[in-house]
Each structure stands twice: as C-alpha cells, then as structure tokens.
Design brief:
about 160 residues, alpha/beta, five-stranded mixed beta sheet, 5 strands
Length: about 160
C-alpha cells in the first residue's frame, strides 16, 4: 500500500501517515528525549508507516538530515516544506499572526481531517501531531494524491495542487 509519512521534526516528533487516496491512517506524537534515540528509531518508524513512498519533513538541522538520509535509504522520496508554506495552504493570514494562534487553528483543522478520514478520534491532540497531520495533507496535495483541500473540511482557503 503506498503511503506518505509526514514528520514535524524534533526530539518531540509529530507523525502522520496517509494512504494514496489522501486519507489519514494514523497520527501520533512521540518524545524521544534525545537526538540519538530518535536517530536509532527512524528505521522502525518508517517501517511502522507502511514503508512510505514519500516522507514530508518540516524542520531542519541534523535531525531532518537523519530523517532524509534514512528515508532515502528506505526507498522513499523526500520532500521538505516550511511551516510558512504549508500554513499558507490552510490558514488565512490573520490566523498566522502568532505561532500560538497558528497552532490553535492547526489543531481545529487537524481534528476535521481526522473526522473526514474516519481515523481514530483523539482524546488529546498535541500540537506537533496536529501539525504533522496538516504537513501530511499538504504532502498528499503536493504529490497529487488529492487535487485540492477536500471541501468537507470547510476551509475558506482553496488550495490546488501545483501544476
């Protein structure tokens, strides 16, 4: 099954996996406590994500490089996105005036993606998992698995796949 893994890169990592119809399969947040533990865990996380065809990374530095190297070794295509880039697809400018405001808005949209995808509903949703969900939604649109933001999400921003 082709899948896409979205990663909000950090020692506290947000992860979201999508299938090729653009629907979310699972999402989670995990605190590895140290970069070395995260680095060792990446191959297992890739396997857990159904050996993804694509890995979309938001974040930089050595941790992102570890993800990129391991993902490419695993046979995945790596895409990188900035927070500003994926947020502009889903959030209006007024919703991005502060990082805290953007995170709050991302949480609400991520919950709608979970519902639309018929994935397990969260009892609590950490901001890194919520952001990974939206990074993944950006990714499935970017690779062409979805042509645009699903109308069922009720967003006033209409995003189209890149030509």
């Amino acid at each position: 099954m082709p899948s896409l893994l979205a990663v909000d890169v950090g020692v506290r990592t947000g992860l979201a996996v999508y299938r090729d119809d653009g629907r979310l399969i699972w999402y989670r947040s995990r605190n590895f406590g140290a970069a070395v533990r995260l680095k060792r865990a990446i191959p297992a996380l890739l396997h857990e994500a159904f050996d993804p065809s694509y890995v979309v990374l938001e974040g930089g530095g050595p941790l992102a490089e570890h993800w990129a190297t391991a993902s490419e070794r695993h046979g995945a295509h790596v895409r990188r996105v900035t927070a500003e880039e994926w947020r502009s697809m889903f959030l209006l400018s007024r919703d991005q005036r502060s990082g805290e405001q953007a995170k709050r808005m991302a949480d609400g949209i991520a919950r709608r993606v979970v519902e639309w995808s018929e994935a397990s509903r969260p009892t609590s949703l950490r901001h890194d998992a919520a952001e990974a969900i939206l990074i993944g939604l950006w990714g499935v649109i970017d690779v062409g698995w979805l042509p645009a933001v699903p109308p069922a999400l009720g967003l006033s921003v209409v995003a189209k796949r890149k030509p």
